[in-house]
Model the fold of this input.
Amino acid sequence: MAHPTTKNNTVKKYAPKNPLLSPRFGDIATFGRLPHTQNLSGVDIAVVGIPFDGATTYRPGARFAPRAIRTSSCMNRNVHPEYGVHIYKKLSAIDYGDVNCNPLNLKKTFGEISKTYGLLLKADVLPIALGGDHSVIIPILRAMHQKYGHFGLIQFDAHTDTADQAWGEKIHHGTPIRRLLEDGTLRGRDVFQIGIRGPLTSEDQMEWDRKQGITHLTAEEYQKKGMAPVLRKLNRKIPYYLTFDVDGVDPAFAPGTGTPVVGGLSSLQALEAVRALKGLRFIGFDIVEVSPPYDHAELTTLLASTLVFEFMALAALNK
Amino acid sequence: MAHPTTKNNTVKKYAPKNPLLSPRFGDIATFGRLPHTQNLSGVDIAVVGIPFDGATTYRPGARFAPRAIRTSSCMNRNVHPEYGVHIYKKLSAIDYGDVNCNPLNLKKTFGEISKTYGLLLKADVLPIALGGDHSVIIPILRAMHQKYGHFGLIQFDAHTDTADQAWGEKIHHGTPIRRLLEDGTLRGRDVFQIGIRGPLTSEDQMEWDRKQGITHLTAEEYQKKGMAPVLRKLNRKIPYYLTFDVDGVDPAFAPGTGTPVVGGLSSLQALEAVRALKGLRFIGFDIVEVSPPYDHAELTTLLASTLVFEFMALAALNK
Amino acid sequence: MAHPTTKNNTVKKYAPKNPLLSPRFGDIATFGRLPHTQNLSGVDIAVVGIPFDGATTYRPGARFAPRAIRTSSCMNRNVHPEYGVHIYKKLSAIDYGDVNCNPLNLKKTFGEISKTYGLLLKADVLPIALGGDHSVIIPILRAMHQKYGHFGLIQFDAHTDTADQAWGEKIHHGTPIRRLLEDGTLRGRDVFQIGIRGPLTSEDQMEWDRKQGITHLTAEEYQKKGMAPVLRKLNRKIPYYLTFDVDGVDPAFAPGTGTPVVGGLSSLQALEAVRALKGLRFIGFDIVEVSPPYDHAELTTLLASTLVFEFMALAALNK
Amino acid sequence: MAHPTTKNNTVKKYAPKNPLLSPRFGDIATFGRLPHTQNLSGVDIAVVGIPFDGATTYRPGARFAPRAIRTSSCMNRNVHPEYGVHIYKKLSAIDYGDVNCNPLNLKKTFGEISKTYGLLLKADVLPIALGGDHSVIIPILRAMHQKYGHFGLIQFDAHTDTADQAWGEKIHHGTPIRRLLEDGTLRGRDVFQIGIRGPLTSEDQMEWDRKQGITHLTAEEYQKKGMAPVLRKLNRKIPYYLTFDVDGVDPAFAPGTGTPVVGGLSSLQALEAVRALKGLRFIGFDIVEVSPPYDHAELTTLLASTLVFEFMALAALNK
Amino acid sequence: MAHPTTKNNTVKKYAPKNPLLSPRFGDIATFGRLPHTQNLSGVDIAVVGIPFDGATTYRPGARFAPRAIRTSSCMNRNVHPEYGVHIYKKLSAIDYGDVNCNPLNLKKTFGEISKTYGLLLKADVLPIALGGDHSVIIPILRAMHQKYGHFGLIQFDAHTDTADQAWGEKIHHGTPIRRLLEDGTLRGRDVFQIGIRGPLTSEDQMEWDRKQGITHLTAEEYQKKGMAPVLRKLNRKIPYYLTFDVDGVDPAFAPGTGTPVVGGLSSLQALEAVRALKGLRFIGFDIVEVSPPYDHAELTTLLASTLVFEFMALAALNK
Amino acid sequence: MAHPTTKNNTVKKYAPKNPLLSPRFGDIATFGRLPHTQNLSGVDIAVVGIPFDGATTYRPGARFAPRAIRTSSCMNRNVHPEYGVHIYKKLSAIDYGDVNCNPLNLKKTFGEISKTYGLLLKADVLPIALGGDHSVIIPILRAMHQKYGHFGLIQFDAHTDTADQAWGEKIHHGTPIRRLLEDGTLRGRDVFQIGIRGPLTSEDQMEWDRKQGITHLTAEEYQKKGMAPVLRKLNRKIPYYLTFDVDGVDPAFAPGTGTPVVGGLSSLQALEAVRALKGLRFIGFDIVEVSPPYDHAELTTLLASTLVFEFMALAALNK
Done:
């Protein structure tokens, strides 16, 4: 879309449109008022939408998340309040647009995701996905694995997403972690899940996870210990992918989601938890399971777009 | 659920729970306060939910329609204000419960619909479906065809549902009529579509329909002529199935739907149009494409449950 | 309604319908997908709706709570995440349906509640009420007293419910505790109120309560000390009834209520507070003052249904 | 509240605050920006709130209607677009405030209504009530009868309100017309009901009404004939009271109501129907059954406050 | 944004992205999935947002309209259902983006509008504005006048917008027509206002308008006569600008607006009224006063985007 | 409005209407059911509305806040739960009504605010403003300075409000603190800002503030240290003005605001933070930036009215 970016020779090639030219709520809603382009030359980091909710088992609606998060993201600014880093002096950032999803066909959609991530990774662009339901990380993490080999996963979520199936279906938004462990994309000991909570289906539901070596930090534990139990166990030699299912946060703070579970993290705790990961090397990020039809007053989409700001800041620190 | 029905020896075996025993908003929400049973002996008419929206191309949510319509249906009463017929003195009516849908698998869901309709039709029960998206009529009408041979279709809808495909998918909620014409379940000259309107994709979009002999009564035409153009052309020798896509009604009256088109019928016009069909022999009914996440103050679910009342009254007149 | 429960010979007579047969949002909405029956043989625990809000002084709407909580309760599962207990291997559980309330007549409604609780207690069924406004505990606790003699009360609430009257009315949703202390159903020293907060009407408003020996744990105190002050004072020799007015929780987490007071517990604190009661013997539970017209995205009804899950788990631990 | 009214020596003693002094949304919300006083000297017409919904059988909430209608009423202006009459040059108008209702006690509330109406009628003030549920017309019309003797009733409503009882209760919002016919306050041949529609409870439900000589103009008939069938039958020698149950209008136009019935009048039809009554002598008006918790974007309260404007204009024409 | 438009050599240079490449709800939300560019070469028609509501006297929020209308506009298609014209075979169409508004400064915003319209008109592009409040037509129509000399105005609106001032302010969203008549941009006899209704401030409010020769077609008249009274009086020798204040439509169909007046046109009537203008030569269009914070389920934004489709079709007929 | 206040000779001249005369939701909505008068004789404290949002840069709507806060304020009572002080035995309190704002003219509105505050301060009345956007404190604090000379400012806010300008505008709701420091109304070392958080525009955004000596307590710091860092630095020799921008609180607790930032204080933390200021001498208070169109179930307006109760209690302690 090539809008006139800040006339500031210190920022990188692509940066948000200057809000002093037009109010933040003006113009076509790209993520964070960033230029929209699919030309990846000179791009460090790209936001990409994946408007797909075909693997949802309860409330659908995440197909509308990329547009809704973009709308709220106009309030993102430039500098992280704690790190002091000016993101766009470190990173040339774009809104890549959306993956061409097929709302009726999981397989073809996964194919399109693979294709897009192939292009982004080939161009050495750091991708941030706006989901979509959580199934979309299957092709994403496989692409990551292909490029980076072994990496760890940090997952904010109310659910472990390690179910085996439902109604005979092996791929839905509650199974991606199991599928990715089975095919070797992930190793259990490098998977960290934060915000886990809620009633279980069977007594041994957590058994399989524990055998894999997955680390769970429940919402109740986070209240008492914060991120310390995770930080202690992280292998700092490998890079990480951060996936943020918005239902890791309590539904009072994030009502716009598909499978809410009461008793989650507050928004402030979510920010603190993400900031605790400062210093890790990240190869990708996503925010998933935002369902705008259930949102109110942009609570959830504003949280989602703020989390993307935090992701960008983590990435900028790496530069 | 076998709740104590009206102590009135003139009503049939199954009838709504007496509202003088408990307020209408009380008790577990079955359709119209009818008994829930799957024992079809002594049953004339059955409401059956099909909580499936896996073939939706725009806003999902119809999976929640059966429950939401049941909740609003407690205000249904017994006697039609125009016909004067007391439904439950003519018909023994139940809430059969829901088809066991698979939200991730269209094919298996169609199989379950076929199975349930097989049972209902075998027992000579007149079925009224609470959809679900409009794709669910594919297995329903095939079951009808198997039992009744040739029949006509009266369809309220903003869309013709005669698309050929989308993203290569042959079955979605915009294609059922084409599929059913292709396989001989329907014949074009016995298909009547009321409420059609809105922008078209291509100049020849209506060509195929016209070649099939489908009758379109647009919303604009309905304003001027009412149902007369349809009534003139109906073949009264064959039985009819009535499918009501709630988007045939204007979104002001039915906001809770997936693919709204402005400029539709009012609720009162919808009632009048259905009542104009008095005297036809009906073999089945449905109300589809109700999407509760977009509804407000039960506008859409109350309209849907009232339409089911109208369907029951049409059926009672046949007795 | 006798739906086919899990084919698992280890669960009790009545257990939730298997979600692998149909999705959680499918079927007629009974509490937690439990069978609906009023035959109490072989039943350990029963959920019963009391759709009555005729004693409300501010926002009504609680009459719609039983249906709305049932709708959200489909996400309840089987096993408690902390205790590890599988509820339905310990308890045979049903949805009993609703008390036949009279929305215009408090006295008759109380009579119906007494009748229903008489039946449940005679059959040694542990009842969990879905209110309704808080006045409904008057007949409930009187029935409990008749069966169990002396017992203690643990009450989550923003208000003490010890008012004497309003506009000359002795029975409304702000007076039940006073009435029950006056008639000897409760003794002040065994009444524990958690979450109390907000402006008072007069300087001596709390005086009467203190004279009765009631223990107050304000929301502010809970923030600092948790449940410890209550746990220290509980007499573990007597059984307890737990009544949960959802306004004990902050309106951000439970907007759907009639008399909200800002500054309450979070959902997670509510869960922790209930779990702190592990080991007590409970003779009954309720969740009251949920007002669906003010809810958003099922925040309040999901919290309510999750609390019922917690109550069931407490009961299962007693087995 | 005695705010500075328009400095215009042509208007009467009490008139709306000049919107050029402060914007319409400013100031404490009295009806139509009118002065609030309970001193009836020099007053021609008074708006009075009756915040009571204790006789509601389905959705409550009408207790909040007087405040909500006042809020929307700031957009009322001075001159009727069709009659050309400047209301406040003809009528000195106030907001009297509310009747002191008791939300838990119908009888006492009726007593307070009687007391207030006694005062208003004694002072020859024309009252316009903001309900409240429809039961409030029982004491209102009895007070009218006492002052004026025989008068006719024009009622906009989806329901006839001639039920005999529910759950043994003789007074609820569905019975006022029967009670008032029984006690001689009304005579059936002078009762005109417009907008009647919807399913009936029994075949003979309308029998009693017809025997009384009540005239029904159904919503369907209104579509075809307008008010003509009513206008033909009105006895122009007697004065009339106009009661407007907002559910006479379709829920698309008036979602904020307690017992919605689809298929009603549009807002424009409602205005036209009221305007058709021009020339009758009116002794009082009300708008009832507005339930703000179910409203959206002030649709219903704006309609209600506009109808009050129409009532005032009808009254001004009589001057 | 240059997305790959339909590979169809019959469409013009700029046309909507093919929905078979990605679902309609996918991708960055430009109007109607059109390419975004500010290069006007080869462009026939351009949609331009004016996110400004600084001249609003009641409910603000229209600043968010351009983005919200864009979001709903993905359901626009290609061919008009009545005219049969394929818009994009006649017209090369773009989304130009937004005028750089200053939310705090009316004057500077008007300057920016003038600048943008200067560019568009210089390039012979037909502009369609997405407002913004109704004040924005002041600079728009002045630009039109500069280019085209005398032209007529067709205005859908509940209000005449001919007020002189409020609180001493000469420019607000209720005064543009008076300002434009005063400065000679418009001539009264060529101004046609449709949908006018509602209470007036003074008896002579309409006097000034009549003296100017403005034609009013009230909503009540439209019900009875349709557009005939306007069509009779139109001077077909001059070109027209069409301005559509969404409050011309009834708030049931368009709740998301700032100054709603009950009793307006239905959506279908609005479509019919616009279509009645077929054959006129148009020099510009706008849709104004859409206020998304008051909308529900996209009712108003979908109507707005459909009206833009109708405008494009009117323009295509001129080609 | 002079309604009959509590017949209790211990309360001051003006006190809330007795809720035992009429229910809290009854009567014309003044703040806290207080008498409305503009006669300042015998008045200690006055609530005054400022319905102005003309300086808003993102979501408007605060113009509707005074009315909406008044509506929710009926639940305020008399006695502070922690201090035990009966407000109305200490303070004679009124609802003064609203400042005559001009929604289109910041300058004139500021003039009207100055005029009203001049009157209130001359009469030695302690004012509590219901905003309005945050720009309204410019004339308020200037009036305070004129009367009291030097005073400190305690500000709850997500933002520092020390921006220099936007789009060339020096006065908007993000600049008041800078303007008031520039003109000497405030001194930086006596300005305390609590709840600050969120992305920054530039690296040196906080530099200017620090040079002025402003104390920031971020939301993150508040979580860890509470108010201690502020309490340590307060100069207890000067009086204070407390300004509460509701966006200091997290949007989950206060969704109805214009510029939400995730990660803020909870409602309970807000109450505790205000209570920590006990003992300071206050010369005025306000609650600003409440935007009702974005609120849900009165969450934000109830919080706002409860904060006003806390302000009154702080003032009562000073007596």
